[in-house]
Amino acid sequence: DADVTQTPRNRITKTGKRIMLECSQTKGHDRMYWYRQDPGLGLRLIYYSFDVKDINKGEISDGYSVSRQAQAKFSLSLESAIPNQTALYFCATSVGGLRNQPQHFGDGTRLSIL
Amino acid sequence: GQQVMQIPQYQHVQEGEDFTTYCNSSTTLSNIQWYKQRPGGHPVFLIQLVKSGEVKKQKRLTFQFGEAKKNSSLHITATQTTDVGTYFCAPTSGGSYIPTFGRGTSLIVHP
Hints:
Radius of gyration of chain A: 13 Å
Shape of chain B: globular
Order of helices and strands of chain B: EEEEEEEEEE
Number of helices of chain B: 0
Largest sheet of chain A: 7 strands, mixed
Strand content of chain B: over 45%
Distance between the termini of chain A: 30 Å
Helix content of chain B: under 10%
Distance between the termini of chain B: 40 Å
Structural class of chain B: mainly beta
Strand order of the largest sheet of chain B: 1-3-8-7-6
Largest interface: A-B, 24 and 25 residues
Oligomer: heterodimer
């Protein structure tokens, strides 16, 4: 969805560097998510946030941190990047509510760590 | 945590043949979503199933939720080259609002 924007789209960096991936949305959704996609492994949840003051760990949060600066922005940081964090990263959003809602994904950030 | 198995991992078909992917869980599911990801693209929501035994159709796509709410399937009739991509199931269980994505089934359609 063009309403969910990820920057950068591609990034190549070296082991040990700190990296930040940005996600912004104009959909007005409360919930935001960061996923990692590796070939054959599907989408694995890193962190999620249900509103500005809410941060929750997902399945694979080790080595990552997040910040929800505003409703529209959710950034993912790799404090000290390592090669096995090379992957395709997706940000997603969904509306709030009492039940599971469809997720809307950004175009992804392809990250390579050398 | 919730475990979901999606099979097959890959499926090659000739254009015009049918295709089915299955999503199986060891636990009872609350609901299940299905997504499609085109090559080089991002996942796009297709549908959500909530009720036991539910069947929903979208043109040539038929989605089913098992009676025991432990499995689901996506069936495509008469595949076309535009159906190429990876199909993911994403169920939730218990009181969770967060789906767990299956590993996906990659559909390759040969013209």
